[in-house]
Structure formats: structure tokens, C-alpha cells
Amino acid sequence: MALRRRARLLLLLLFLPMLRYRIFAVELISTDQNPIVQEFQRAELSCIIATTKTANPRIEWKKIGSKETTYVFFDNKMQGDWAYRAHLNSRTSLVIANVTRADKGIYRCEVVAPEDTRIGAEININLTVHVKPVPPKCRVPQSVPVGKSATLQCQENEGFPEPTYNWYRNGEALPLDSKASSKFQNSSFTVNAKTGTLVFSEVQKGDTGRYSCRALNAVGDAWCEDLVMEVYDLNIAGIVGGILVVLLVLSLTTVGICCAYRKGFFINNKQNGNSYKTPTKPDGVNYIRTDEEGDFRHKSSFVI
Ligand SMILES: *[C@@H]1O[C@H](CO)[C@@H](O)[C@H](O)[C@H]1NC(C)=O
Ligand SMILES: *[C@@H]1O[C@H](CO)[C@@H](O)[C@H](O)[C@H]1NC(C)=O
Ligand SMILES: *[C@@H]1O[C@H](CO)[C@@H](O)[C@H](O)[C@H]1NC(C)=O
Predict the structure, then answer these.
(1) Which ligand approaches the C-alpha of residue 186 most closely?
(2) What is the reported pTM?
């Protein structure tokens, strides 16, 4: 009983391909269901009728959007602006003369063949459009003190597939990790090729230079302009010394003004009515003729 059923099933499987052939279902094939084309080039979305009995099958192309589906080829003609940029090739394939990034997506080729036993067939084509990167935006700190950390950024948003990034210093490519190369042993940095950031954990004098970054993908590359990063010595002794000098000057000035008040210097001047007249010689500078040199030498003195 079970044996006979199995034999019948085997027979059916053997003859199924023949049966299908005799049914005359319209059948579609494609030489490439996932074409990849560079932006501004020609794209051919291959859809070929493999079998049909119908002399003039009806052909339609639709673009399947996530929100809406639009007709590309319908009622035997190109729709909308597709009329200027697309045509059919070999009866059913769709040719787009000049693809843009907006053209990427799923296209459906549909054929209706009324004289066939199974009258309809469809095939989806996934068009990918590659876009060259544009020059990336780079951010480089202008000056960083020795020993501090620093982050340089490089970003590009047009390229597809998403670009990876390389950094260059004075025209020389930097490795992803300074430790990977003996040439950069005096530096301490890492590069994230995916995000485009170059991070110095501690900048050194030798890290001063012109930095530039390159965004690269399958179809092209683009650079940002060189930007200079300068590394300066943070001289602690110098800074403390400077602050002390300023404090000294301030206290001397204060003492001087106090003394002047006590001696009545300002009050006397006001009574004479001379205080607002511009003196012929600046108060703080005395010009002295020296016999030996026969020249003017100037000497600064403190204004009180
Ligand atoms: C393709 O289209 C772009 C803009 O849409 C245009 O700048 C370019 O010239 C076109 N290329 C060709 C070959 O028609
Ligand atoms: C179309 O192809 C792209 C990349 O080739 C892929 O990321 C995407 O998921 C595909 N879409 C569909 C609906 O298969
Ligand atoms: C690293 O620094 C040392 C000491 O300052 C120096 O002798 C050497 O030449 C530097 N190496 C490189 C590759 O710049």
C-alpha cells in the first residue's frame, strides 16, 4: 500500500518538469539581479523572458519604494521623467542612461502573457549606486602643548559605500597605530579608519606638521586640505616667573601711587592748572645728549 503510493509519487516527480514545460508558463530570468553601478553611468536592469507562448506579452517596470511604488514603464511607455532617461533594451530589460544616487533601490519587472497557461511572472532587481567621496571636512587643533592629548577629525557624508579614512603628515601616510612602525616610535597615536579620528594620547614636539586626510571607497577618493598642528613647550618655570614679575610691577605701582598722594603731587598739579596740558616731552622718557656719542639716547624712567 505505502509502497504503491511512493511509486506514484516518484513517477509524478519524474514527469513534473515535462508537465511544466507543456503548461507554457511565462518565465523570467536575469543575468544580474544585484547590479552595482557608479553614479552618472549607464545601468542595465536585466529582465529576460525565458519562455512564453504569447506573441506580445505586456511588460511593466515598477520601482518598489518603502512607502510607495511608482511606475517606470507602464501602458507601453516610460512614465514621468523616466521618458528622458530610460528605455527598454532587448524587449524587457530596463536601461537607465545616467543613474543618480536617488535611483538605487528595488525594481520589479512584471510580464503578463495571456496566451500562456500561467500568465504572469515577475522578477526583482536590486540596483546599488556607488558614489565617489567628496573632500572630507577636517578638524585639526592649531596648537597643543607638549604632553597633552589631541584629537583630529575627518568626516565625509556623500560617498557610498561609506569611505574609510587615512591620515597623512607632511604628505606621508600615518599607520593606524604609531607603535606599528619604528618610524613613528616617538609619537603616540591611533587612527580609527572607520570614523576618521586620529587621537594622540600625548603629543610630542615631533608631531608638529601639516595634517591631511583622505576618504576612500570602492569608486574613488578625496582629500581635505593640509592643516597645521603646532606643538609648543609648556614652560612651567617661565609661567611662574612671568606671574611674579607682573605681581611685582603691580605692587610697585600701588606703592608709587600711594606715595604720590601723600606728597600732594596730584593736588599741586591741579592748582597750577597744568595737569591736562600735554607736555612737550613725554613724562616717562628723558632724552639726554651724551658728549661722547653726540647722539640721542633714551632712557625709560618710571612714571609717578
Ligand atoms: C548625468 O547627470 C548629471 C546630473 O544629474 C549631469 O551633471 C551629467 O552631465 C550627466 N551625465 C551624462 C553623461 O549625461
Ligand atoms: C539591496 O542590496 C543592498 C546592497 O547590495 C543591500 O544592502 C540591501 O539589503 C538589498 N535590498 C534588498 C531588499 O534585498
Ligand atoms: C626619537 O627621539 C630620539 C630622542 O629624542 C631621537 O634620537 C630619534 O632620532 C627619534 N626618532 C625618530 C624616528 O624621529
Answers:
(1) 3
(2) 0.69
